[in-house]
Structure formats: C-alpha cells, structure tokens
Amino acid sequence: MNHEPDPAILYPDVAAHGSLAAALQAVASDQGLVLPALAATPSDPLRHATFASVTPHRHGSYVTAWHLERSWTIWGSSHNRLMICGATKDLRELPPVIRGWAEGAGLDEIGQAAPFDVLTGRFEVPDNNPADIIASEWQWMLKDARDADWPEYQALIDAAYAEPTLRRLYPFTSHWALSFSSTPDYPFSPPFVWIESPRGAGGYIIREGRDDPAPVQVSTPAEAISIAADRIPAALLRAFTL
Fold first, then answer.
1. Which residues contact 221 (CB under 8 A, 6 or more apart)?
2. pTM assigned to the model
3. In what side-by-side order are the strands of the sheet with 58-65?
4. Alpha carbons 106 and 197: distance in angstroms, whole number
5. pLDDT value at position 242?
6. Residue 238 banded pLDDT, cuts 50, 70, 90
7. Helix residue ranges, H only, 76-168
8. Domain residue spans in the chain?
9. In 3-state terms, what secondary structure has residue 114?
C-alpha cells in the first residue's frame, strides 16, 4: 500500500506553478536572480527538475523533492563524481546554488552562496587526470568520515590518509569497509585488503578478501593501516617509484 502523500498536497506552492522547475524560476525571480532553463521531469513534474551547466564536464544536475516530508535535495556531478549535494527545507535557498553551478562558479563560491551544506569535499578535475581524481576522492572521504558521527571510522580514514603509499591509491568503501584501488575507474583493481571499523567495538578487522576465513583484529587504526601498507602488492610499489 502506498502511504506517500499526494505531492500536490505536500507541495501546494509548487503545484500552484505546475512544476518544480516553474516554482524554482518563480522563487529566483522574486530574489532578482536569473536562472538557466530548468526542465520538468514529465513522470514527476512536482518533485523533479533538471538543469544544465555551461561547464561541459558538469552534468547530472537536478533538484528532487522528498516524498514523505517537505524537503529538497540538489545534486551536481562532474565526470560521474558527485561534487555538490545538499538538502534544504526552504525552496528559496536553492536558486543561488543552481545559478552558481549552471554558470560555472567555483565550488568554494557555490558553497559560500549556499545557506546549507552543499559541498561533498571533492574538487573538480576537468581533464580527468587519475592522480588528481585520487586526491579529490580522498578529500571527499575525509569529509564524509568527519560527518559520519563514527569515531572509529574517522580515525581509520585519517590514519589511511596519513600513510603516503596508501594515499596514492584510490580509496573506496563497501558496507563501510575500506579498501584501495590502483585506478579510480571502475572496475577497480583487485583489492589487497579490506579494513572494517565496527561502530562502538573499539577495534579494527583486516581481511585479505571479503570472505577471508582468518581475519586479523587489532586495537588501533595505526596498526590496521600498518598491516594494509605491508600488504600492498610488490608490483604496485614498484610502479610508485617509476
């Protein structure tokens, strides 16, 4: 049974304009802002709108409304990596973010214009250079860990970033287990380690594979990262020195 409220009831102000795209344009106009063309999504016009950017590597830009309570989330990606993402309960806070992203403003400038947290921590890499993508991903990982309210996980990410050999690898997680790849492009290179940081357990678990029958458990993130660094394949270490 569908218990979602009718979007026209949850968002009567949007319904009065006929679409979220039109409502955003109206709100922007009230603020003296000119937005790019926004397109309503035909299958859900009251809860979804898309827009483009003059910056070619920016794409996947849209605003979506929540289904069970009044709130909106804005999303913007670059080379398939999320650069901006934030939620607000005030429709009037969205136009400055939309305009900045669409007109090619820098991420810091967009963040300063937004009254809510919108930056993911990544920085844009227009030329898709792998080393810069890896550095950008680490910046997202560090911010995500700070925001997670999970001290063990944050300590693990901080310790991993402090290890120079691991910092040159692309970090990624699966079910909050940390691993590394030599390439930022999917499919990732075969993981040589998985590190888990059970919430509230006060320890770290290191596995060679997700089904490792003999995982190692240590008490500190420094120990976990030391083991991970020791398990970096020799061929990969040689590549670092080239």
1. 152, 155, 156, 158, 159, 160, 197, 204
2. 0.90
3. 38-40, 48-51, 58-65, 72-78, 81-88
4. 35
5. 53
6. confident
7. 95-102, 107-113, 130-147, 151-162, 164-167
8. 7-113, 130-241
9. coil
Whether the Cβ atoms of residue 102 and residue 35 lie closer than 8 Å to each other: yes
Query: 3-state SS of 146-215?
Result: HHCCCHHHHHHHHHHHHCHHHHCCEEEEECCEEEEECCCCCCCCCCCCEEECCCCCCCEEEECCCCCCCC
User: Which residues are paired to 177 by β-bridges?
Assistant: 174
**In b/e form, how buried is each residue of 160-183, taking b as 16+ CB within 10 angstroms?**
bbebeebebbbbbbeeebbbbbbe
Pairing of strands 48-51, 58-65: antiparallel
Alpha-carbon gap, residue 163 to 181, rounded angstroms? 15
Q: Cα dist. 204→49, 141, 149, 222 in Å?
A: 43, 18, 17, 10
Q: For residue 123, what pLDDT band results from cuts at 50, 70 and 90?
A: very high
Q: Do residues 128 and 135 touch, judged by C-beta distance below 8 A?
A: no
In angstroms, the Cα distances linking 134 to 118, 222, 242 are 21, 21, 18
Residues 6+ apart with CB under 8 A from 167: 138, 160, 161
Residue 146: what residue type? R
Closest CA to 107 of 130, 82, 71: 82
Structural contact between residues 83 and 124, judged by C-beta atoms closer than 8 angstroms:
yes
